[in-house]
Specification:
The chain has 87 residues and is α+β, with helices and mostly antiparallel strands. The protein has one domain. 26% of the residues lie in helices and 32% in strands. The strands form 2 sheets. Strands 1-2 form a two-stranded antiparallel ribbon. The chain has a two-stranded antiparallel sheet with strand order 3-4. Strand 1 and strand 2 form a beta hairpin. The longest helix is centred in the first third of the chain and has 16 residues. The protein is globular and about 40 Å long. The relative contact order is 0.15.
Amino acid sequence: MKEDNTLSGDSSIEQSFSKEDFARILRELADALESSNYFAFHLKGAIISVPPTGEMVIEYERTNARDKVELKISWSQSRSEIDSSFK
């Protein structure tokens, strides 16, 4: 079965990483943001392209004695704008 690498409509993907891979992805993302460049990575077969703009939020949550930190980047952009940035 071929894995679909496109997202359409409302989608949500979550993937676990090793500590080393997670740290590498964060370093590469930080470098791209500081350089005002797009950052692209694979997440369960989908290619995610993060622009250097957008709203960046760090969220902390504690529920039932469980702590969670979420790093979020959100943006609105058409697919054609993302594709043209890589040409």
